[in-house]
User: Which sequence fits this backbone?
């Protein structure tokens, strides 16, 4: 058999996500066990909540978001932490962190937060409050970018895949144009242009230049779905294109859409922090995790905690979102989970 | 096929052209280039502003400025920046350093990433696979600038300090040996006993090796020597034969061994040539090696085994060449290290200014400067490649034709290399073209951390001053690279997967 035949066969035998049933259903029936009928949604939820990595990621993500939001509060609502990111004070003990996690009977300083758990910077600002502010900003931007990029990408990908013809070529060529530009370049240009107009605008514009991957994925999926019998059936009874797209096609692509939201959020965290690090992203007086690292990178030798904490939070956010995304992918598309023997 | 390539080429040029308009538009709007001239005292302000306006054609509308730039750029003239310096000469100085970094990091991450991905797919759900998966997740959650700063601060400085007195401490020996032995044990197929045997032997071997290297001061003046080179070449011959055809048949093994033998002879025979060669000589030698390997494989393989013997001989020959290359590099290490004051891993710049040495010494010089920035980029791309390879391999391994291949009695090696690997690698070609854009962006950040004056600096200064010319020069190179890689990936995809051409 030639490679070509093999590849063609591969295309023919690929089961769509909806065709994948729960593993081992036939075996349980043969053993006389009862079979519980489960809907597609229930199956996905079950697989997701059984995914250890995803659960760890979810808990971690909720913890980080909860900590960032409740500690210093948001807007006019105060948080439980008594210091603010802007108030300066005298640096106590060179600004060393007072956080201690080693209990006394192990020879440590006991478990306590202390006055400044993450230390203080050179003008005495509480670094825990600063890091939390940075985390809030980075999270807001990342969520905005993830949602907007996915929304735009889905609409463009679905329109291109469904209508074909000149709609498809226009949309896909414009996506090709954006792909040809390194993300850092276009995001940096836009970031500098709207510098100082607030993080929400920054997040929205960043989302508007990072939708291409999602558009390509969705288009590929729509291209195969539009040839399916149920779409033909809908068309034959006179359903409008809009209704076919939103009611019949998009719900079937929900898996890849949800997965690409998480992946877009994770890469947006890294993109925003990277941009802010080179000075093209969040501008003072706002701060973000990347901005903090950039501000204090020279402190690594003398006050390393100013460098470590924001980095740890970037990794925690990106890692937990990536794990959630991996769990979702496994839940929606269990094709590569187990090798049949 | 030709029609497909021509059409693809036409589309690429058109896309690139459109992208230059978009970027030029944004670059002219990004910041006010006259901002600092406006701050000057009254008597000089007017003239300073007039000079900049004249130089950057600020009095012309956007569309005129764009066509002025385009007209010059097509003739290879990239204009002058805001200070009046030629952008061409800025680019000449910047481009080679950045491309070295980007290409080096990409190639390394592709090779290692795909290898790791294939192994972890073949050992799905083993401890090794779980560890690799976890590490990969951590790696692509790492901010590149953070890890680059840490590498610079600790790897470079500590490694250089350690080289002053290269004794490996006992816990370090234990740690490295344990990790290597665990990996080796994880790779073995079989029962618990054979795993433990491999684990034990590797552990003992590594401990003895590291202790001996440390005690004899090998790191002060490293090198492999003829015996190690010969043994590695023979090991490579056996390894490549196993991969290509298995050891059941004699001709491929014989071809590989002859190829390794010729390599060892060349090690001694080429001594004077390899003293201070240039890049061209080495490339020629590599070509000759491949040619000789082909001949050996063709002749020894005979009609029946030619298909296996030729690749086995070529790969072995090239591998032996690489080992000899490594040996030469290591031998020059002591003299290079002395010439830069005993601190070979650099943290600033892309090369030692005005460095003059043999081919091997300047090679080490670039290596010392590239090592850490590349490592920072590789760590992140590596994770992507290994994850995608693993996913793609697993998907192919679930296909019916793989079961058929097993059912008709093919060996596991043949199933994996011929049926799974070939088809599993097809989606990876697209990933390479996507990744190149990310790596270029990462390079800008990494260059900033390591203080390189290269493409990244050009871009950042251009944006800082609202100066379109350097920004466009950056885009011509980076966007051009992305377009070219995308095109190659598309064509490769069409060659590998004929279904694509139909649409």
Assistant:
């Amino acid at each position: 058999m030639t490679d070509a035949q093999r590849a063609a066969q591969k295309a023919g035998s690929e089961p769509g996500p909806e065709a994948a049933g729960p593993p081992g259903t036939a075996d349980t029936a043969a053993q006389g066990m009862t079979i519980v009928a489960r809907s597609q949604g229930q199956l996905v939820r079950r697989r997701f909540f059984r995914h250890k990595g995803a659960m760890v990621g979810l808990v971690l993500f909720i913890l980080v978001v909860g900590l960032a939001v409740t500690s210093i509060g948001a807007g006019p609502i105060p948080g439980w932490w008594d210091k603010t990111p802007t108030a300066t004070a005298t640096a106590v003990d060179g600004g060393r962190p007072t956080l201690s996690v080693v209990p006394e009977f192990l020879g440590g300083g006991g478990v306590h937060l202390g006055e400044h758990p993450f230390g203080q910077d050179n003008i005495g600002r509480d670094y825990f409050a600063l890091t939390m502010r940075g985390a809030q900003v980075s999270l807001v931007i990342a969520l905005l970018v993830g949602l907007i990029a996915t929304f735009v990408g889905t609409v463009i990908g679905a329109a291109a895949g469904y209508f074909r013809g000149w709609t498809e070529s226009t949309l896909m060529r414009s996506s090709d144009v954006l792909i040809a530009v390194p993300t850092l370049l276009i995001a940096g240009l836009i970031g500098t242009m709207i510098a100082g107009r607030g993080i929400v605008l920054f997040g929205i514009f960043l989302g508007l230049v990072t939708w291409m991957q999602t558009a390509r994925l969705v288009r590929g999926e729509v291209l195969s779905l539009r040839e399916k019998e149920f779409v033909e059936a809908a068309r034959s009874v006179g359903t409008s294109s809009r209704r076919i797209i939103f009611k019949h096609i998009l719900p079937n692509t929900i898996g890849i859409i949800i997965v690409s939201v998480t992946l877009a959020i994770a890469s947006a965290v890294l993109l925003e922090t990277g941009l802010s690090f080179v000075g093209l992203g969040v501008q003072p007086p706002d701060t973000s995790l990347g901005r903090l690292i950039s501000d204090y990178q020279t402190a690594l030798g003398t006050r390393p905690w100013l460098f470590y904490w924001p980095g740890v939070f970037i990794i925690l956010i990106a890692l937990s979102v990536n794990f959630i995304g991996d769990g979702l992918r496994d839940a929606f598309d269990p094709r590569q989970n187990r090798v049949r023997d | 096929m030709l029609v497909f390539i021509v059409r693809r080429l036409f589309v690429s040029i058109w896309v690139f052209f459109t992208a230059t308009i978009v970027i030029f538009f944004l670059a002219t709007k990004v910041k006010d280039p006259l901002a600092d001239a406006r701050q000057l005292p009254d008597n000089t302000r007017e003239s300073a502003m007039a000079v900049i306006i004249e130089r950057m054609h600020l009095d012309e509308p956007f569309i005129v400025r764009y066509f002025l730039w385009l007209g010059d750029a097509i003739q290879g003239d990239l204009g002058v920046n805001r200070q009046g310096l030629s952008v061409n000469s800025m680019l000449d100085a910047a481009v080679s350093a950045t491309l070295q970094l980007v290409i080096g990091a990409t190639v390394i991450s592709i090779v290692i990433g795909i290898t790791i991905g294939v192994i972890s797919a073949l050992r799905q759900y083993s401890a090794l696979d779980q560890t690799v998966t976890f590490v990969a997740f951590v790696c692509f959650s790492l901010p590149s600038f953070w890890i680059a700063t840490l590498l610079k601060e600790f790897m470079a400085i500590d490694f250089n300090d350690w080289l002053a007195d290269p004794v490996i401490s006992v816990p370090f020996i234990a740690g490295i040996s344990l990790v290597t032995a665990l990996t080796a044990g994880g790779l073995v197929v079989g029962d618990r006993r054979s795993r433990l045997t491999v684990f034990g032997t590797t552990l003992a071997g590594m401990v003895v090796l590291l202790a001996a290297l440390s005690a004899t001061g090998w790191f002060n003046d490293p090198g492999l020597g003829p015996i190690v080179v010969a043994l590695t070449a023979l090991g490579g011959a056996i390894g490549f034969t196993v991969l290509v055809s298995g050891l059941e048949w004699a001709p491929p093994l014989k071809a590989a061994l002859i190829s390794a033998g010729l390599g060892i002879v060349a090690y001694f025979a080429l001594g004077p040539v390899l003293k201070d060669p240039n890049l061209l000589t080495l490339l020629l030698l590599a070509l000759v090696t491949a040619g000789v390997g082909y001949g050996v494989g063709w002749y020894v393989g005979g009609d029946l085994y030619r298909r296996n013997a030729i690749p086995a001989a070529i790969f072995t020959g090239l591998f032996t060449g690489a080992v000899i290359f490594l040996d030469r590099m290591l031998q020059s290490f002591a003299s290079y290290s002395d010439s830069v004051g005993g601190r070979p891993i650099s943290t600033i710049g892309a090369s030692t200014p005005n460095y003059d040495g043999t081919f091997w010494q300047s090679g080490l010089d670039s290596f010392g400067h590239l090592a850490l920035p590349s490592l920072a980029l590789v760590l992140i791309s590596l994770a992507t490649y290994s994850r995608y390879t693993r996913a793609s391999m697993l998907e192919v391994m679930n296909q019916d034709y793989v079961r058929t291949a097993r059912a008709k009695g093919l060996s596991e090696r043949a199933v994996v290399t011929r049926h799974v690997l070939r088809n599993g690698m097809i989606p990876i070609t697209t990933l390479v073209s996507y990744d190149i854009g990310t790596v270029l962006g990462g390079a800008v950040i990494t260059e900033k951390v390591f203080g390189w004056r290269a493409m990244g600096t050009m871009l950042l200064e251009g944006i800082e001053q609202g100066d379109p010319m350097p920004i466009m020069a950056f885009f011509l190179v980076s966007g051009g690279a992305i377009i070219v890689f995308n095109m190659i990936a598309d064509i490769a995809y069409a060659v590998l997967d004929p279904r694509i051409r139909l649409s």
Q: What stands out?
A: Chain A has 14 helices and no strands.
